[in-house]
Automatic annotation (TrEMBL):
Protein's recorded name: Phosphoenolpyruvate guanylyltransferase
Superkingdom classification of source: Bacteria
Gene: cofC
Residues noted as binding phosphoenolpyruvate in the record, renumbered to the chain: T146, G162, S165
Catalytic reaction(s) noted: phosphoenolpyruvate + GTP + H(+) = enolpyruvoyl-2-diphospho-5'-guanosine + diphosphate
HAMAP family: CofC (MF_02114)
Function, in words: Guanylyltransferase that catalyzes the activation of phosphoenolpyruvate (PEP) as enolpyruvoyl-2-diphospho-5'-guanosine, via the condensation of PEP with GTP. It is involved in the biosynthesis of coenzyme F420, a hydride carrier cofactor.
Broadest EC class assigned to this enzyme: transferase
Entry keywords, A to Z: GTP-binding, Nucleotide-binding, Nucleotidyltransferase, Transferase
Length: 248
């Protein structure tokens, strides 16, 4: 389990269900084949952005999915296997314990793998706010769940993720964070509506690539097609600008 992030103090633990089962609530909107591809693409965009956050030292993904593990290792993450039958919170406790056992962890934060609009600068603002208190969390965009739970170096994380986790994290004494301008860290994607909201914020290249190849836009509302086409066009223009070659 080795990885190198942006050179900061934080270890991020990112849980990922096997792709055969992940993001099940999305299949009604995008179809079953795209669901699995999107689950991986969300994780790739999440890890890619997290690795570029200057406050992050290490990203540890907890997953039993061999393909996802290989792909995310390629992005620089460390990967540890899941706890058989343990569920999400057991996976997070295990990931934190492994990171701390290898002495790579100072402060730790659990970060969901379904944040395709995550931006390094936004994550940096959230981690800066979290560093001021022993234990803190960021509510999701809906205001009922959690996308990030953080704990200082000597502090137990005590994750209580799952349906309506905001209430549980608040009751556990974790400080609720509300830093300004961090929409991409809060926008988890469970449903087609969430995916549209993430698209409006701007998703990463892996998610965009999957959506650009998606045939069945009828199932995923016509509005998405226009946003994806515009984003792909913008990305192509950015690539041309970055290459310094003027378009014909
Ligand atoms: N390692 C691990 N990760 C999990 C487990 N259950 C959920 N996760 C991850 O926890 C995060 C939040 O979970 P959800 O938003 O409910 O995602 P999901 O379970 O793929 O979505 P649904 O199938 O629609 O419930 C995502 O990154 C999931 O991949 C688990 O048992 N083990
Ligand atoms: C895992 C969570 O919820 P959801 O499944 O709605 O993403 C959570 O918010 O803790």
């Amino acid at each position: 389990m080795t990885s190198t992030g942006g050179g900061g103090d934080w270890t991020l633990v990112v849980p990922l269900k096997p792709l055969t089962r992940a993001k099940s609530r999305l299949s009604a909107s995008v179809g079953e084949a795209a669901r699995a591809r999107l689950a991986l693409a969300f994780a790739q965009d999440t890890v890619h952005a997290a690795m570029r956050c200057p406050r992050v030292r290490t990203v540890v993904v907890v997953t039993d999915d061999v393909r996802a593990g290989r792909v995310l290792t390629g992005l620089g993450a460390g990967v540890v296997p899941d706890v058989a039958g343990g569920g999400l919170n057991a996976a997070l406790r295990h990931g934190v314990a492994r990171a701390r056992a290898e002495r790579v962890a100072g402060a730790v934060a659990a970060l969901n793998a379904d944040l395709p609009a995550l931006r390094p600068a936004e994550l940096s603002r959230v981690l800066a706010a979290a560093a001021a208190v022993p234990r803190a969390f960021l509510p999701d965009a809906a205001g009922t769940g959690t996308t990030l739970l953080a704990a200082g170096a000597e502090v137990a994380l005590r994750p209580a993720f799952g349906w309506q986790s905001r209430r549980r994290h608040l009751a556990s004494g974790a400080v609720e964070l509300s830093p300004p301008d961090v929409p991409g860290v809060r926008q988890d994607v469970d449903t087609g509506e969430d995916l549209l909201a993430a698209l409006e914020l701007g998703v990463g290249t892996h998610t965009l690539g999957v959506l650009d190849r998606l045939d069945d836009f009828d199932a995923f509302r016509g509005a998405a097609r226009g946003i994806v086409e515009d984003a792909v066009e913008d990305a192509a223009e950015d690539a041309v600008r970055a290459s310094g070659v003027s378009p014909a």
